[in-house]
Design goal:
Number of domains: 2
Largest sheet: 8 strands, mixed
Pfam families: Amidohydro_1 (PF01979)
Shape: globular
CATH class of the largest domain: Alpha Beta
GO molecular function: hydrolase activity
Distance between the termini: 18 Å
CATH superfamily of the largest domain: Metal-dependent hydrolases
CATH topology of the largest domain: TIM Barrel
Strand content: 15-25%
Keywords: Hydrolase
Protein name: Metal-dependent hydrolase
Number of helices: 15
Radius of gyration: 21 Å
Bound molecules: zinc ion
CATH architecture of the largest domain: Alpha-Beta Barrel
């Protein structure tokens, strides 16, 4: 049993309040927390860990959306507009896959851990990162992804998907959970999506999908026009949208789904996502680099849709640190009061992300997983602590996962 003493505890519950001179008592789960003196009196035999002055303990960060298989991208893909980027992904896919060696993927995971991400959702197109995700001390929700729009290939694609999903199931343990991803409304045939979502409902699996990331996607699904019209003509002269945006959202009824991006989602689509209990995963750096715009936060909040925050992959980012992502988000929404937004982002990066991934973590309270990070913030005071963390935090001094010190 460990008793961790810090100057500040930020439990990241909805109040985003702060406990001064506190201590957290835990083994694999959190047993108690509160005033440091009271915890010492109540648990005198627990092994004390005293963090340096100015330290803040908070839940480990949770990244709900990352593509580790594209971790070798550095200067290869075209940024600035969505469809040209997608074309560059297709053109360089094999080379990027080859370059994504075990060492590259392990370093990408290590970079997340080093910056305090203790759990992540890996979107897996091919299964290249499976071993690294099973072997990391971090918690992983492994989203086996389904993609493909050719009706004549539906059976082959679905069988391949089921095989990869089974491969993930076989590796499940206390920190590694299988889940599934439907790539997007423009790329995945609704019959395939429906079959996979039947599995998700039956097995109670968490689901992820890209949704309304770009203006091109909006134009294509609404009217069969825009950049995607030219893109799909390269595959078939008779290409047409597979379903409407709203039809696509409704396919996910009865599942726990993270809708990633949502920058161009319409109000009726957001209404449906809210009613169905879905969340929106905000990836502001990816959206900036692919020229897809900025997610409007008010329509998300007005519908009480949980806002989650992810980095996406290095295919559309330069960092897998959620601190970097929060800093970018802070500057992407100048209309939201600064301190309010910092609290919202930190709550998203911890409690909201963990809840969306179905993890019993992301909040420091009795009974939750002891996934805890300590950030040393010299000169910290309790005034506006979330903002100062978002502005200055880089790497934790301590990282505990399931109560064990991992670095
Ligand atoms: Zn993505």
């Amino acid at each position: 049993m460990t008793r961790l003493h810090v100057d500040f505890i930020l439990p990241c519950d909805p109040s985003m309040g702060v406990i001064h001179h506190g201590a957290i008592v835990f083994d694999k789960t959190i047993l108690d927390l509160g005033d440091g003196g009271a915890m010492e009196a109540r648990y005198p035999d627990a092994t004390p860990v005293v963090a340096p002055k100015g330290s803040v303990a908070l839940p480990g960060l949770v990244n709900p959306h990352v593509h580790l298989e594209f971790s070798a991208n550095q200067g290869v893909l075209d940024f600035g507009a969505f469809v040209p980027w997608l074309q560059s992904v297709i053109a360089h896919r094999e080379a990027l896959q080859e370059a994504a060696t075990s060492a590259v993927i392990e370093e990408a995971i290590a970079s997340m851990l080093r910056t305090g991400t203790t759990a992540f959702g890996a979107i897996s197109s091919f299964g290249l990162e499976l071993d690294a995700c099973v072997n990391t001390p971090a918690r992983v929700v492994f989203f086996t992804e389904l993609l493909g729009s050719r009706p004549d290939a539906v059976d082959i694609l679905f069988n391949d998907f089921k095989q990869r999903l089974r491969g993930a199931y076989e590796r499940e343990n206390s920190r590694f959970k299988a889940a599934l991803s439907i790539h997007s409304p423009y790329s995945t045939h609704p019959i395939l999506a429906k079959n996979a979502l039947d599995i998700a409902r039956r097995e109670n699996l968490i689901v992820s999908t890209h949704f309304m990331e770009s203006k091109a996607e909006r134009l294509w699904l609404d009217a069969g026009k825009g950049d995607f019209a030219g893109f799909f003509k390269g595959f078939s002269p008779h290409a047409a949208p597979l379903c409407s945006g709203l039809e696509y959202v409704r396919l996910f009824q009865g599942t726990r789904t993270l809708f990633t991006h949502g920058v161009h989602a319409s109000f009726p689509e957001l209404d449906a996502i809210g009613t169905q209990g879905g969340s929106i995963t905000h990836c502001p750096v990816s959206n900036r680099l692919l020229g897809t715009g900025v997610l409007a936060l008010d329509p998300v909040f007005e519908r009480n849709i949980p806002l989650t925050l992810g980095t996406d992959g290095l295919s559309s980012n330069i960092s897998l640190s959620l601190w970097d992502e929060m800093r970018s988000a802070l500057f992407a929404h100048p209309d939201v009061p600064l301190n309010t937004l910092a609290k919202t982002l930190l709550h998203s990066a911890t409690a909201q992300n963990a809840k969306a991934l179905g993890l019993d973590a992301g909040v420091l309270e009795s009974g939750k997983a002891a996934d805890i990070i300590v950030m040393a913030l010299s000169g910290a005071t309790s005034a506006n602590l979330p903002l100062h963390l978002v502005l200055h935090a880089q790497t934790p001094s301590h990282i505990f996962i399931e109560g064990s010190l991992v670095c």
